[in-house]
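Researcher: For the annotation table, I need structure tokens for F-BAR domain only protein 2. Please keep the output clean. Sequence:
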Amino acid sequence: LFCLYFLQGEKNNGFDVLYHNMKHGQISSKELSDFIRERVTIEETYSRSMSKLAKSASNFSQLGTFAPIWDVFKVSTEKLASCHMELVRKLQELIKEVQKYVDEQAKAHKKTKEEVASTLEAVQNIQSVSQALQKSKENYNSKTLEQERMRKEGATQRDLDKTGVKVKKATEVYKSFVEKYATTKTEFEQKMAETAQKFQDIEESHILHMKEIIQSYSCSVEDTHKQIEELHQEFVNNMENTSVESLIQKLAESKGTGKERPGKRKHNNSLLIHLNLYDSEEEDERRKFHVEIKPVQPNNGTHQHKATIDELKASIGNITLSPSATVRHTHTHTHTPTTPLGAATIVPPPRPSSRPKLGAGKLSERPLFYKNGVTNSSPPPAAPLARAESSSSLSSNTSLSASNTPTVGTSRGPSPVTLASQDALPIAVAFTESVNAYFKGADPSKCIVKITGDMTLSFPSGIIKIFTSSPSPAVLSFKLKNTSKLEQILPNQHLLHSDSSQSDTNTRDFWLNMPALTAYLRKNSEQNPTSSYYNVDVLKYQVCSNGIQSTPLNLAVYWKCGPTTTDLRVDYRYNPEAMQPHGPLSSVQVLVPVNGGVTNMQSIPNAIWNADQNKSLWKLNDISEKSENEGSGSLRAKFELSDGPSIPATLAVQFFNEGSTLSGVDMELVGSGYRLSLNKKRFASGKTFHLSFYRPNSA
């Protein structure tokens, strides 16, 4: 909170920092507008270049069997240019919205400057009084020391009296500034607290508005990418429909000189030929020449026989350009793969020849993150995997907690910077789970729990070159183990295929669509060429829960609310049986809202009281089996009230773990060609890990 971090300071310059931070918001808004405007310029230039390219396709040679292909290129390129021009239009409208926000922001900042003028005056007053107080203190100390020195040196009474007058005056001045500083400080703190909250509200509103703008920008770009993907697939379909036989047939029909063999035809009395000729690219009309050839008359006087040759017809045939098409993909066209970002369905490739052929499994239509009486939340995003290879493979420096946590996992050590295609290629896997729970007082039967998870694979950057250089890289297959506790599994349909007919409920086989994976990694490499590894989300899952037994931390709360005091007790118990393997809960925090005008708080262990939010916060050490009482304990607090009684509120709890999961799910590579260099596991409390209850006489 701004009022906590900017209220104090040696020079009381928190106001100045917050005010300039507010002004920086205007700079950010303008820079975002400039960024989008630059994107518009790039897209517009690209669109015009595509239009020019489409026009050039019309001028290419119309002779030969390849001629009909140019029409396909022309139409496809024109549509591509239109897609990018449509994005230009959308982004130009977004720029207008950003500019409108910049103008409104400037007006709001001007109004805020007027509203906080009194706070600025209070800041200047306390700075001035602080300086005067320091000088008066130094003067008082100096006069007092001088008086003591004169006494020790045996100065005359007259000199001592003069010095005493100076000391008295210095004392009065120092005392007056002490009193003035106290009054000024009270006024400063009051106004500064109000102003700090005002600045925080402005910043929160600013960030929210900027995120909305970015969301609009992202949606516009995403829509364009989907259109381009559909257009690209339309082009692929047209190329596949234009077979070699059809092109040969068109040439034969348009340029054929006759089906009869020479020597079989009788003497012709006359030959009529219609030729359709072209001269130059500037001519739009055909010019027809009628040529009549009369053979020499024979002397035997036989009747003249007439014969004709079929007219030669020129046509290029029709090519269908449908507005939408089903995406198809085969191993023989590894240069037109569909990226996993599109909305179309990819026909799964066959499983590796070393295993029985399995059909693509059907997924349940039930959503992974269903709505219930507690929340509609999703698990936290998977953190990047930790560095287990060299600079060409894996790295990480973030975690779910506010501070960095050590890497937990198993590693087979570093691999060479340059990967050889004949080596077993290193990959890493991470399981990240989120537990949401709602406790109803001390009744374990009323605990509602939902656990969700993500599985992420990480590939070293060096693997992309191997994938792209090989016409058919080894299929990456793995077995998901301990799946009996999973209620639902949702694979990434663009990348991952599985066998839904397996009889073993505790395992499930998966294999990746290697062309789609290669295209996805190549795209990420183009966007982030300096990255040493690339993460791929392959599946999500939901864990079957068994109420309070599924939570790693069991909780119960008791309230006793009176007119002048509120007593609170929170009992907690570490539950190692909910995780595999057993591991500590780190960064445990309990946040309790208490209303009724709290004037004083006494707590065991010590908690932090936030008067602005009316909340108390406990920060606990790691909780594990090695903790006191094997991880069980209580949080107690008594709150003195000025406007009681309090109303029992919902408590929020946060924690995380590195090295364990709640589901016990694991993976095992199947076949050769790859090796697992790191297996990382973690879980954390979700957005909803709450408890509430009201029992008047139980605290």
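Researcher: And a one-line annotation?
Model: The longest strand covers residues 674-692.
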